[in-house]
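Justification of computing resources. Each target in the renewal requires a structure prediction run like the one illustrated here; the chain below, 133 residues long, is used simply to show the kind of job we budget for.
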Amino acid sequence: MLPLPEEPKLRFFICGSALRGQPDHGNLGDAKFLGEVRTAPRYRLYSVRNQHPGIYEVPDGGVSIAGELYEFTDEQHEALMASEPPDLYEGDVILEDGSTASAMIYPQRLIEARGFEDVSHHGGWAAFKASHK
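Resulting structure tokens:
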């Protein structure tokens, strides 16, 4: 009997409430933690109702955002998508090593229309949350 082909894995960048030590980390289930990473300095970070981050890519004035890289199976990916807040969509981010990973992006037009706070100077969601304890 031939071995079953290995299920494809998805690299996913986590930068918000599902980080280790954050309240929604359990939403990742048993996804494989690959390490702490940062994005290339091409993004802005916003606090969406102080509940989760909203990030999007900018042509200039971007920062490097701290996060974690995970490897998901299709099933783990589906579970994560089902737990994500409204308005987020999946897209690619560029990591500081030049590789890409999937991530949850928040539409720039909604951030601007709703006046969410720019917290990019913190460099990451965990640092922002720690500064507000």
